[in-house]
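Lecture 7, part B: from sequences to assemblies.

Below are the input chains for today's worked example.
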Amino acid sequence: MTCYDLAFRNRGDMPLSEGHLFPGLLVNYMDRVSPSIRSRIMGCIRGKNTQPELRTRKYLYAAGCRYRLHDSRLSGCPDLVFATKRICLFVHGCFWHGCPKCSDGRRKPKSNRDYWLPKIQGNRQRDRQHVSDLRAAGWTVLIIWECETMDVKNLERLLKTILRKRTW
Ligand SMILES: [Zn+2]
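Predicted structure of the full complex, as structure tokens:
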């Protein structure tokens, strides 16, 4: 059974990933399944090709940037990798990674808090570890939050930061 079937066998039209699903909906669903099923579902959520990521990719691509996607050889499997500039870019979902910039990141699920709070804490801790691994290996690490991708000014700023980085 795929993750998709596992999570939504009763509602097969619903893709399972960070950006395609309202966090609240998933939270409600997850509260009704057993812990072992829940952990299998969470293990499957990779957060790849989410709407915020696609927005970011589309903008940067149209501006002429070229990049590798989801390079699993690098710590944290960065969403976009600009190899010649040695830049890794993560596009983080606000709820899942605990965004400090918006209410989605501060939102605490009302039920099953002892499951969700450590889960999000764990994500943040892993995120910090990936950033320090990558920096130690000589990469510049950029992060754009889901909420920031809504405003094209932030994407412009991101583009400038990428273009400014020298390749030598
Ligand atoms: Zn946010």
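Note for the exam: Strands lie at 68-69, 80-82, 87-92, 140-145. Keep this in mind when comparing with the next example.
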